[in-house]
Specification:
391 residues; DNA Polymerase III, Chain A, domain 2; twelve-stranded antiparallel sheet; eight-stranded antiparallel sheet; Beta sliding clamp; DNA_polIII_beta_N; single chain; DNA_polIII_beta_cen; alpha+beta; 18% helix; 7 helices; DNA-binding; DNA replication; 25 strands
Length: 391
């Protein structure tokens, strides 16, 4: 294999996929990027057997000196390309004894390779159900819910995000058993389409990253994204080529995202949504953030518990204490409807919700030991459920 390519083109293609490579994986080759060079294009692949990212780069005439395939260490290849001068020409040539020579100007690097035929492939989705949604809405669905995914849990299905299609809406749901985040968006699909799929945590983060990177490139322009759900995989193709004066993206660099879905049954999130709530509190989001940040300083380090005392309309007491007998108390202005009540929350859970809400927030409550529904005022498309705690 022999390639001569502009540094910027190669580095962009590498940067978009390199995070999928996993040098800590039991399969050493998954710490590498696979390179497949043909006369017209260079295909770069990174994978950890859960998420596979592929950059397909259209090549100018003369870039492919000799077609071939190899694999190179992902981190080393990216770091070398980053360190080279802007607009440098990069030359890659495979040699005998599993070596690859990378030269640029007066720089020369020799990297170890591994056989490309040993590089595993996830494959492609079968029996595809395509869902088309605007990129900005997709980012919103993921961003507003991903914080509630479990990090480590024997209930492996909680370590991902549910994509639920019903009633011509796409709903994303994440929960760790203590709190739940839900976001909805109307999509153009058949009215009778019902589908559920659970996307693993790393795949959720990578999909949001790619969609956000595309957004930075396009600026104010939005574009449609097609999510191709199969029985075992989700696949998405995103155009990262040059943007013309009309805001259209060329096809000279395409990134294909493929992720293995979690095989499990997600809990029925509709059953945990609070109903028959007879108490309502309305807070200013910024003031609530400030109060929680101060009061939580003296909360118990493990439980992070804070107590809300809803005694009357107008002011709500927020307090916290710890094993050292320290105590913090602050009053916050609020509109409250209902009987007096005390509720205890994990401050971090409430802060996570406040971090994705822009305006005034509502807390819908029933009793001190029942879950609480939180949402932004006049926004029914994003809902959050937090379980109270005992202190």
């Amino acid at each position: 294999m022999q390639l001569s390519i502009n540094r910027e083109s190669l580095l962009k293609a590498i940067n978009l996929i390199a995070k999928a490579a996993d040098k800590r994986h039991n399969m050493v080759i998954l710490g590498n990027i696979k390179l497949q060079l043909s006369e017209s294009e260079l295909v770069l692949t990174a994978s950890d057997l859960e998420v596979e990212l592929t950059s397909t780069l259209k090549l100018p005439a003369g870039a492919c000196v000799q077609a071939g395939t190899t694999t190179l260490p992902a981190t080393k290849l990216r770091d070398i390309c980053k360190s080279l001068p802007a607009q440098a020409q990069v030359n890659l040539t495979t040699q005998e004894n599993e070596r690859c020579l990378l030269t640029s100007g007066k720089s020369r690097f020799t990297l170890g390779t591994l056989p490309s035929e040993d590089y595993p492939s996830l494959g492609n989705p079968e029996n595809i159900t395509p869902l088309t949604i605007s990129r900005s809405r997709l980012i919103d669905l993921i961003h507003k819910t991903q914080f509630a995914m479990a990090i480590q849990d024997v209930r492996y299905y909680l370590t991902g995000m549910l994509f639920d299609v019903s009633q011509q809406q796409l709903t994303t749901v994440a929960t760790d058993g203590h709190r739940l985040a839900l976001a909805r968006s109307v999509i153009d699909v058949n009215a009778d389409l019902n589908m559920q799929a659970i996307l693993p945590r790393k795949a959720v983060i990578e999909l949001e990253r790619l969609a956000s990177e595309l957004g930075k490139m396009l600026g104010d322009q939005d574009n449609a994204v097609t999510l191709s759900f199969g029985r075992e995989f989700l696949q998405v193709s995103l155009p990262f080529g040059d943007v013309d004066s009309a805001g259209q993206t060329s096809q000279n660099l395409m990134v294909t995202f493929t992720a293995r879905l979690i095989d499990g049954k997600f809990p029925d999130y509709r059953r945990v949504m609070p109903s028959n709530t007879d108490k309502l509190a309305l807070f200013n989001q910024e003031k609530m953030m400030d109060v929680l940040r101060r009061v939580a300083i003296l909360s118990n380090e493990k439980s992070r518990g804070v107590v809300f005392n809803f005694a009357s309309d107008g002011m709500v007491e927020v307090r916290a204490n710890n094993a050292e007998q320290d105590e913090a108390v602050e009053m916050i202005q609020a509109k409250y409807q209902g009987e007096p009540m005390e509720l205890s929350f994990n401050a971090a859970y409430l802060q996570d919700v406040l971090g994705v809400i822009q305006g005034d927030l509502q807390m819908h409550m029933s009793q001190s030991n029942a879950s609480v529904l939180v949402n932004q005022l006049n926004d029914e498309f994003h809902q959050y459920v937090i379980m109270p705690m005992r202190i």
